[in-house]
Design brief:
755 residues; alpha+beta; six-stranded mixed beta sheet; five-stranded antiparallel beta sheet; disordered N terminus
Length: 755
């Protein structure tokens, strides 16, 4: 036998004759076609690979626990020089480790002479660096914190060599080996000689030129993808499972099965989602889709096991944590395997289209209305784990929804299609109404509730998960449907309304027959709907220290959704007002709503805040519908110190006194050239008065009076307010206007204009 067989070798073995007759190598040369030495690169992902690989080598040597690395493939030329085709990264790291330990432990030159036979054909600089590093003339100073600095200080090391990516990577690896072994390097060389670190070596002959073969095997020297690294780590993790956790034979069978599925079944599963939706044949891979879906499944494992702590977002570290170092590795592996397998032989697009839609239809109201895309599995493959700034491209709500489908597919023997249709609706309703509950730290509770709903068809009460108000409503619906199954389509249609999104308590199950009326009402101009509701009563929602009414703009429909989804207790007065309006007609038009408004304005004799908002368009900016009353009574609508807000939450944004803004707009409409001005920040004082610059005066309201004033300077240069007009506003004993204060102020300004 005149060649080295496919069996285990150490780096030292390659350079000495074997007992079986194998001839020693004369050298190892990394070919030109090979990529640069990557394990020493300064990149986060590479740092993790370096940490794990060198850490495994250290563990093997320190504990004297032999480790066998993956295959090294290569071509042996006529000079007995090995040209590595796969494994050059491992060989280079082993070369540097052997050099470090030999020099650190003072090994004789004859024993480490084989290191002089390791070289790079990539560049002269890399070739010469390897030669100089192992020369007897160079003895490193191991007292230096960074050996790389000591090496670059040598007179044989030109400055431009540091620009060689292979050399800079080697220096970085040497520094890392120094950190890992500096205090542990004691009698390790004999363990290297005894085979503590080995690998399988396979020489390949008669397959053509080395470069051609390398191109065939290793995709023209491209760096290993994240998928390839994960696959290797996963398979190694399975093989490394302790026999006390899983018998070695079972682990080997599992590793083989997983490997086969990754190459075949799971690749076929993900193939429709290849090339990242780009259509580019150059991107005709599913590797990134596999990684994203694997991330989803591993995240679910962490969410469901409170004893687990996720210490890294790096997928390689996660694989190592869950499948190599965990006593629950078999359980985790089974979850991942089932998480992929359950989608096999399923028409995934059809599955999601059966239960979800982006556009509700009267013919199939039981489909859940969701945001695009409907295929949540495909979306996860494309975007799971990706961020746009601080925003998840695959939100928490989508994770819950995808898990619901995953759980259903794995429990189809106990959950019928009809049952799932109703239960996934409960879950989508809860997702839509749980903006503040959809948090990563709450995922364990969300997943537990999801499983309970899918299993029992009702919500589990007694612990926090989704929005409490919506949980209560979904329980009420589940009970109600047991005796009103014939109303299921009507209920679904009401839930599907874009202003309700599953929360129907503003109508209530007792008025489910008003569904068509609700659709008819909100097909009208929303500004008219708002005014008609205010004509009937006060339906404003208290939001912290602000009050909200519905917006007339479709861009701000969120105002209506907030009002309609408030708590069961808070919804009562709003429900009464809405039902009172819905009771007036089976079909609504803009003209009909205008008649309701006109009748209210015609019959009203006391002018509270509702009257003014119904009457004057300028008091309704048709944005978020937010208003702020005097901060002395922030939770009560008392008095007439009312600000309308441009922003949804912050009073520090643009805001106006509704009466001054209305007066300002009316005057400028009738007298475009009139010299008046109004600031845009009434809360902070800029806009608390209407400046009548044409008369060098200003105007403002109190709860019960109208003032026109000017500033008078004194001898010290200070100014004091001088009242030119103080006009009481007629009011009831309860402080409600009996005359329109806007009209009174308008006439007062006109009289001032005529002077």
């Amino acid at each position: 036998m005149n060649t080295i067989d496919s069996k285990k070798y150490t780096l030292i073995d390659l350079f000495r004759d074997t007992e079986g007759g194998g001839e020693a190598l004369n050298g190892i040369e990394i070919p030109l076609i090979q990529r640069d030495y990557a394990q020493g690169r300064d990149m986060p992902k590479v740092e993790d690979i370096r940490r794990r690989f060198v850490g495994a080598l250290k563990k093997a040597l320190i504990n004297n626990e032999p480790v066998t690395l993956d295959f090294v493939y290569g071509e042996i030329d006529n000079n007995r020089t090995l040209i590595p085709l796969d494994g050059q990264q491992r060989l280079t790291t082993l070369f540097l480790l052997h050099w470090y330990i030999a020099r650190r432990e003072g090994v004789s030159e004859d024993k480490l002479a084989f290191l002089t036979k390791f070289s790079y054909a990539t560049r002269y600089s890399a070739r010469e660096f390897c030669k100089r590093l192992v020369s007897p003339d160079y003895q490193p100073d191991f007292n230096r914190f960074k050996l790389s600095e000591e090496i670059t200080d040598q007179n044989w090391m030109p400055l431009d060599w540091e620009n060689d990516s292979t050399i800079s990577a080697m220096l970085r690896m040497i520094d890392y080996i120094h950190v890992m072994f500096n205090n542990s390097c004691n009698n390790l060389w004999p363990r290297l000689e005894a085979g503590c670190i080995s690998f399988y070596f396979l020489p390949i002959k008669q397959l053509g030129a080395t470069d051609d073969l390398y191109i065939k095997m290793n995709s023209r020297g491209k760096p290993l993808t994240e998928f390839e690294n994960v696959k290797a780590e996963w398979e190694a993790s399975i093989r490394a499972i302790s026999p006390s956790i899983m018998p070695q034979q079972d682990a080997e069978q599992l590793q083989h099965r997983i490997e086969q599925k990754m190459d075949l079944d799971w690749t076929d599963l993900l193939w429709p989602y290849r090339n990242g939706q780009t259509g580019s044949s150059a991107d005709d891979v599913v590797d990134d889709k596999f990684i994203r879906y694997l991330r989803f499944l591993t995240d679910i494992i962490y969410y469901k096991d409170e004893e687990l702590k996720k210490n890294s977002s790096d997928i390689l570290s996660i694989v190592e944590d869950l499948f190599r170092d965990s006593e629950k590795a078999p359980e985790h592996l089974e979850f991942i395997e089932r998480g992929f397998d359950c989608w096999l032989h399923v028409d995934i697009e059809h599955l999601f289209n059966t239960y979800l839609t982006t556009t509700p239809t009267a013919s199939d109201p039981q489909k859940c209305v969701v945001a695009a895309p409907v295929n949540v599995f495909a979306q996860a493959c494309y975007t799971y784990g990706d961020m746009n700034g601080r925003t998840r491209l695959f939100p928490i709500g989508r994770s819950v929804m995808l898990y619901a489908f995953l759980y259903y597919l794995q429990h189809k023997e106990t959950i019928s299609d009809i049952q799932f249709a109703r239960r996934i609706r409960i879950i989508t309703n809860l997702i839509k109404q749980s903006e503040y509950e959809l948090r990563e730290d709450n995922m364990p509770n969300l997943l537990r509730q999801t499983e309970y709903i899918l299993t029992h068809g009702d919500v589990e009460e007694g612990y926090l998960s989704f929005n409490a108000n919506q949980l209560a409503e979904e329980h009420e619906k589940a009970v109600w449907l047991q005796t009103h199954a014939d109303k299921a389509d009507t209920l679904c249609r009401l839930e599907n309304h874009p202003l309700l999104q599953g929360a129907i308590r503003v109508i209530g199950l007792d008025h489910i027959d008003f569904t068509d009326r609700f659709y008819s009402l909100f097909a009208c101009d929303h500004s008219l709907v708002n005014r008609a509701l205010l004509s009937i009563g006060d339906y404003a929602l208290l939001v912290n220290n602000r009050f909200q009414i519905g917006s007339g703009s479709a861009d701000f429909d969120s105002s209506w959704r907030a009002i309609f989804s408030t708590s069961q207790q808070g919804i009562a007065p709003k429900k009464d007002i809405l039902l009172a309006l819905l009771s007036q007609s089976q079909h609504f038009t803009n003209d009909m709503l205008q008649s309701v408004i006109d009748r209210y304005l015609r019959e009203t004799r006391e002018y509270d805040w509702r009257h003014y908002l119904v009457k004057y368009d300028a008091m309704r900016p048709e944005r978020y519908g937010m208003y702020f009353w005097d901060e002395k009574n922030p939770h009560e609508k008392r008095g007439y110190s009312i600000l309308m807000m441009w922003a949804e939450k912050s009073i520090s944004g643009r805001n106006y006194n509704i009466f001054l803004k209305t007066l300002n707009d009316r005057l400028l409409c009738d007298f475009p050239d009139l010299g008046i001005s109004l600031g845009e920040y009434a809360y902070s004082g800029d806009g608390s008065v209407l400046k009548l610059t044409f008369a060098d005066k200003y105007l403002y309201f109190t709860d019960d009076k109208l003032y026109i004033c000017h500033q008078t300077p004194d001898e010290q240069g200070h100014t004091t307010e001088t009242i030119d007009m103080e006009k009481p506003i007629p009011q009831t004993e309860q402080g409600i206007d009996l005359e329109d204060r806007v009209e009174l102020a308008y006439e007062a300004v006109k009289s001032l204009m005529n002077k």
